[in-house]
Specification:
The chain has 16 helices and no strands. By secondary structure, the protein is an all-alpha fold.
């Protein structure tokens, strides 16, 4: 007897349920943390985090703050795409942070130091991130060096290298790089009128729709092309891919190049808006690349899901700025955001849990069906024996 397939078997439904569970648990843990610190303002603070730009009283300010959140969502989405692209091919690209850094250093140096237009700096920043990713891929392909180890080492090399390079284009009296809009207006990504839709926010521009387009293209590449099939096949079983005539080493290097290019592109999408200057005394790798890991898993390792996951993570991160600082320290908002982001990584656990429960339920139903068939067969045999 053919059993009806449960809707919970659908991978998209599983990803949605798992993501919602992670979000709810993250918010609950964050709320409990606020209760422990100061129970009086716990509820108002968690609501303020969720409201984010809606905390502002004037609609124009709300739109402007929403625009700021979207500006930060674009690079986060690109880092998420970088992580999930590599993961689909069986590689864990923890080096998205370093590739993001080298992309930032490249685009800022070329626009501030060499006076290049934004589109040229954008392309070269993507290539720079791709080359850094390809280094990890080559070490894996030819020397079997663990990608995680090589990526972590390159993260720090990239950070210190970026600080050194950008020290040549920084302000004389501060550790921050020169202001892009005044130093090289042609190096700023054009707004195309989008800023007017968000309360005149000058930082909102081409980067946001471009990030969404890239996400769609990555989905098409992975799901609808021969190259995407070969890359995923290589990730699942390199030996089988090699036996089938696929160039497994080339695929590993190409995968890490594309992943690195996506992260480098994300840095260009952020810093070429002029929203933020690079601090040449940074002692830690920017969190954007690491948050991309959470966004990738929260989105169910799907490029389209990563769009919504990236916005949500950036939404609560920006919302943390509205926590009442008279009741909580300035680090409290970072704590809440970090808890939620951390728990976003349990999406795969919940998907596995759902599959396990469904398998057990299906097995029990099959056992009952077999027992009923055996019982019916015994009854027929007894009836035949009685007739004889």
């Amino acid at each position: 007897m053919k059993q009806k397939r449960s809707i919970l078997r659908n991978k998209g439904v599983q990803s949605l349920i798992s993501s919602l569970l992670c979000i709810l648990i993250g918010l609950l843990v964050g709320y409990i943390a606020l209760l422990i610190i100061n129970p009086e303002g716990a509820w108002d603070s968690i609501i303020a985090i969720l409201k984010n730009f809606l905390n502002a009283t004037k609609p124009s300010i709300q739109l402007k703050n929403l625009g700021n959140t979207l500006v930060k969502t674009a690079p986060l989405l690109m880092c998420a795409l970088s992580v999930l692209f590599a993961y689909k091919v069986g590689l864990f690209n923890i080096g998205a942070a370093g590739q993001y850094v080298i992309g930032a250093a490249t685009c800022l140096y070329l626009t501030l130091g060499a006076g290049m237009p934004w589109w040229a700096a954008f392309i070269i920043a993507a290539l720079a991130g791709g080359v850094l990713g390809a280094i990890s891929g080559a070490l894996k392909a030819y020397c079997n060096v663990n990608v995680v180890i090589s990526c972590i080492m390159l993260n720090w090399i990239s950070l210190y290298g970026a600080n050194l390079i950008l020290g040549k284009v920084k302000e004389a009296t501060s550790p921050y790089t020169l202001v892009l809009s005044s130093t090289n207006p042609g190096g700023v990504i054009p707004s195309l009128g989008l800023g007017e839709l968000f309360g005149g926010n000058q930082y909102v521009g081409l980067a946001i729709p471009l990030a969404i387009i890239v996400a769609i293209l990555i989905w098409v590449l992975l799901e609808k092309t021969k190259l995407g099939y070969e890359l995923k096949a290589t990730g699942l079983n390199p030996n089988a891919a090699k036996y089938c005539g696929m160039k497994e080493r080339r695929n590993v290097i190409l995968t890490m190049f594309i992943a690195g290019a996506l992260a480098g592109m994300g840095a260009a999408m952020f810093y070429l808006t002029g929203y933020e200057q690079w601090q040449t005394t940074q002692a830690s790798v920017p969190a954007m690349g690491f948050n991309g890991i959470a966004a990738a898993f929260l989105g169910g390792l799907n490029p389209i899901g990563a769009i919504f996951a990236s916005y949500f993570i950036q939404h609560i991160t920006s919302g943390g700025a509205y926590v009442d600082l008279t009741m909580y320290s300035s680090q409290t908002s970072d704590l809440i955001s970090s808890l939620i982001i951390y728990l976003c990584g349990f999406v795969l656990f919940f998907k596995s849990f759902i599959d396990t429960r469904l398998d057990r339920k299906q097995e029990k139903e099959l056992q009952k069906a077999r027992a009923a068939e055996d019982s019916a067969g015994d009854s027929e045999d007894n009836e035949k024996g009685g007739d004889e």
